[in-house]
Amino acid sequence: MDKRELIAKRIAKELKDGDVVNLGIGMPTMVANYIPEDVHVMLEAENGIMGVGPNASQEEESLNCIDAGGNYVTTVKGASYFDSAFSFSLIRGGHVDVTVLGALEVDEEGNVANWMIPGKKVPGMGGAMDLVVGAKKVILAMEHVSKNGAPKILRRCRLPLTATKVAKTIVTDMAVIDVVPNKGLVLKEIAPGFTLEDVQNQTEAHLIVSPNLKVMEV
Amino acid sequence: MDKRELIAKRIAKELKDGDVVNLGIGMPTMVANYIPEDVHVMLEAENGIMGVGPNASQEEESLNCIDAGGNYVTTVKGASYFDSAFSFSLIRGGHVDVTVLGALEVDEEGNVANWMIPGKKVPGMGGAMDLVVGAKKVILAMEHVSKNGAPKILRRCRLPLTATKVAKTIVTDMAVIDVVPNKGLVLKEIAPGFTLEDVQNQTEAHLIVSPNLKVMEV
Amino acid sequence: MKSKLLSAKEAVEKVKDGDAIMVGGFLAGGHPEHLVNALLETNSAKDLTVISNDTGTKDLSIFQLVKSGRVKRIFASYIGSNPETGRLMMSGEAEVKLFPQGTLAEKIRSGGAGLGGVLTPVGLGTIVEEGKEKLEIQGKEYLLEMPLKANVAFIKADKADEAGNLIIRGSSRNFNIVMATAADYVIAEVNEIVPIGEIEPNHVNVPGVLVNAIVKVG
Amino acid sequence: MKSKLLSAKEAVEKVKDGDAIMVGGFLAGGHPEHLVNALLETNSAKDLTVISNDTGTKDLSIFQLVKSGRVKRIFASYIGSNPETGRLMMSGEAEVKLFPQGTLAEKIRSGGAGLGGVLTPVGLGTIVEEGKEKLEIQGKEYLLEMPLKANVAFIKADKADEAGNLIIRGSSRNFNIVMATAADYVIAEVNEIVPIGEIEPNHVNVPGVLVNAIVKVG
């Protein structure tokens, strides 16, 4: 299975019936494809849609129905629209249950860096800072190491932060890790084919092994 | 002519074509009856209507269309509805041109008291504080003296204030007075039948007589 | 997903001793009459805090609630239409805090939007500023007003779909929309319930994800 | 009343050297393409400040505006889709200030609503907090963000009546509604104009009193 597919599938299992969920651009968006049939969630797009549906077919394309990545989308039954101020009232006010985002770095305190690389890439934070601060549960969807093989799960983030102490669960192609406040990173699941040693070797942060350590199932 | 009718008629002449106007409960509401035909204003009700029309007939009565006094009203063509937060964004944000309110007291600085009499009457300020602070022009509609004959236009207000330095024009059954910042109260018009002495005698505040003093015309 | 359709009795069971409840409406407009009645008749919770623009008029159930002896604190903007609130305030039987109407709406919005409070010029120089922090921002003074939240909100709408998406017509929106964002449990009293998908997404005033219970009346 | 129907050229004449302009839209959704084009082609105002969520993509007129050398300051939340903004930022040719998307929306709302700023937890512990005041309120820390206003706002709507009441469909509401409250002169680019009275008051997204000019495209 493709790494990204694995991550998206595993995250889909975290969603509960009735959850309001915001999926970031890229890998997080793929989560929508794997949500179990008996779990009904409302996907929110921070540009103003509650109840995002599948991408629009060419005939349905409308600039009045785009998601936060600029894709033409449809809406599900029971959807609604609102403006940016209301949308971020929902987000900041704790009315979004889960946000799934990518990350460049995460650390033992749950600090997240995902919006800029100084001197290189400054795309702006968009809605990411509001989402990680406001959502009840922040799930990071990330490959375990960078393209150069460098760890991304660190003792302390080195890149400019998106927010402090917000990550709750980290899902990578190697592991599922929970951030436990005042404790650290608890390794809960290891992807098939990897050993505990493999995971720790690719992780700069110290991992506390859960007494219920399991094989990641998707 | 009835005192209240005189006041309402005179205030109606202050309104300009295109103005957004909020009329308080009581005498201010009467102003709507005297707006010249060639002057089109939008009447706003702070509970959420832009474009209030005449009172509703019995068949039209709906709890979904009441004004800030709780009266059943109609709406004019081009009306719109909004919630209280948006309504007061309009008011506080300076999007209302004129507010007409009653007052218990007003003073030389344009301070206004119109919401409570300690130990006696504490109805709450409702939207009055927001309106006098936010509207571009505050016109007070008031009888010149109290029922007991006591002056209501004072050197300094004695009752708890609604806001400081907000009154722009005071229209009474005896006079039209402008509040000029850092200067004081300028008497512009005197109602037919009264002399300058009559007006000053019924006013505690010092009145500066306008060089263009006129007879009040309605 | 669990159905949100409940009886008034079931819905108001959520209210517990010591709770803060928000009650929508502006006088009789958009007031959730039946929910408040159910609270009076089927629930004995006491020491309640009631947050409501005006605590109604003597024809409304909220008048009876205020009179019931079960309310220890009231936050409102106007109580002139409910002499019982004034009596409780004078006698000290309940703590009654009055706020400018726009400030009250914004405090509730602020609570629902995860903001730290409201910076408003309204109330400066009046007794409203007593005990509150003042900030100078860009050369102007503002009052800092705290956000407001509640355990339960009683709101009123014209129509709901089974997901809780609400349409609130005309001037009845008033406090109902902001209150839907600012309580842990939101109960909507509605005149009509339609299947999911029958409300046009552009016409939704309150997204269903904010609504926990729907009670049909009439 | 004076007609609000203008050509794009006439409407954008309002923009002068040194002005701050707000441009609605989220990427291509709800972006007033024709107004920005008219500004580029028929008006030579320079030293502009542009306030826009994302400064668009390279297919949009706002990309050309950013590239024109006439913009000295940009306030945005996301510029990853407009590399030209990033280039100006890196080279120092323009001052580019980035804000979390919800903060940007709320700053504009705050400006339009006469509030003194925004108290948000978003951005704390990140470079967004640099140079900004922090307040502790009810035991939690918040960042104080200043209100934003503009001289002219360019917004986009689907339909207008001749009074300027606007309907904005779907996800195109985004920043267009708050921007309509926060500028001295508001120009709406619309696809359709109908006579006054043809828009149902319940469906108005922007009350006409906020709109100074209506420009029909297509």
Automatic annotation (TrEMBL), chains A, B:
InterPro entries: 3-oxoacid_CoA-transf_B, CoA_trans_fam_I, NagB/RpiA_transferase-like. This is Succinyl-CoA--3-ketoacid-CoA transferase. Pfam families: CoA_trans. Keywords: Transferase. The lineage of its organism: Bacteria, Bacillati, Bacillota, Clostridia, Lachnospirales. Coiled coil: none annotated. The keyword Transferase applies. SMART domains: CoA_trans. It comes from Lacrimispora algidixylanolytica. Gene3D superfamilies: Glutaconate Coenzyme A-transferase. Belongs to the 3-oxoacid CoA-transferase subunit B family.
Automatic annotation (TrEMBL), chains C, D:
Keywords: Transferase. InterPro entries: 3-oxoacid_CoA-transf_A, CoA_trans_fam_I, CoA_transf_BS, NagB/RpiA_transferase-like. SMART domains: CoA_trans. One of its GO terms (molecular function) is CoA-transferase activity. It comes from the Bacteria. It holds the Pfam family CoA_trans. Belongs to the 3-oxoacid CoA-transferase subunit A family. This is Branched-chain amino acid dehydrogenase. The lineage of its organism: Bacteria, Bacillati, Bacillota, Clostridia, Lachnospirales.
